[in-house]
Amino acid sequence: MDTRIFGTTEQDIMQAAEILKSGGLVAFPTETVYGLGANALDPEAVGKVYAAKGRPSDNPMIAHISSKDDMGLLTDGITADVEKLMEVFWPGPLTMVVPAKPVVPKVTTGGLDTVAVRMPSDPVAAAIISASGVPIAAPSANLSGRPSPTTGRHVIDDLDGRIDAIVIGSDCQVGIESTVIDMTSDQPMILRPGIITAQQLSQALGKEVTFDPALLQKPDTSAGSGLLEAGSDFRPKSPGMKYKHYAPKAEMIIFQGDRQNVAMAIAEEKMKRAQWEQKVEVIMYDEEHPEEAAKEFFAKLRACDKSGVDVILAAALKEDGIGFAVMNRMFKSAGYNIVNV
Q1: Which domains are delineated in the chain?
Q2: Which comes out higher in pLDDT, residue 235 or 263?
Q3: How far apart are CA 13 and CA 279, in angstroms?
Q4: What is the pTM of this model?
């Protein structure tokens, strides 16, 4: 397949929208990461996304809309709490899981009766979705299991020749995927942490927002299946809950503990690896500015792949707020290879 490369002119956006309307696949920028789009209401088109990414079919998609009014196309579950979050956080990096209307294909929902919906703030994404006239299912525009793409170059590296078109826009400003919150009960629950934190959501709703217990425990990966939940019958309600994600080609080790001890342990490990003639990359972000880590982390992993790094030694961040969201990705990237110091 010849993949067409578009810019962000009005003509480019209209051509991309026409491809989506006709059942094709188009990658495009959002404020979080680049997405791989297909008509969310077309089962055949969504099936092509799974095939292009090598994505497991029970990993749900997020349907992207360009207007709050379009929420009613996908769900009848627009509660007062859902309306509050739409008002405060949309457009932006927040995905809500709500009951799905019958019009939403099961291939889009991962076989569930719920659908995940987001309204991106990136103007190019919004324009493409609006011009297409349909909700757009758009997981991250990478091969499944690879670090999520935050630049157009990342998308080309993974999907050139596998999809119809790539819209090259700005580099992504957030850098990690959206916060996903389950709004199907009176108790809102975060299924995937992101740059919008539990504290912000609780403040907007005036009630406690909890975390899915799976986010707070280290999963059993001893079987070597790559699953991040025990049992093959586990059906994730959000992308990123079940399968190994974001993995670089290099071995990756996370050092967790007192920051000074972490720095010393990384230095010792780096010296040891140098004696083994291994190429080492150290990732250590400022704990006081986790948003910088969020923006740069995936790009850093991809740069390590490009330069042939053998081992990545990473310092853990404090697991609160945005730091918790970054560590969710970092732990998965390392396959939970953690050294406590």
Answers
A1: 4-216 (3.90.870.10), 251-340 (3.40.50.11030)
A2: 263
A3: 42
A4: 0.92
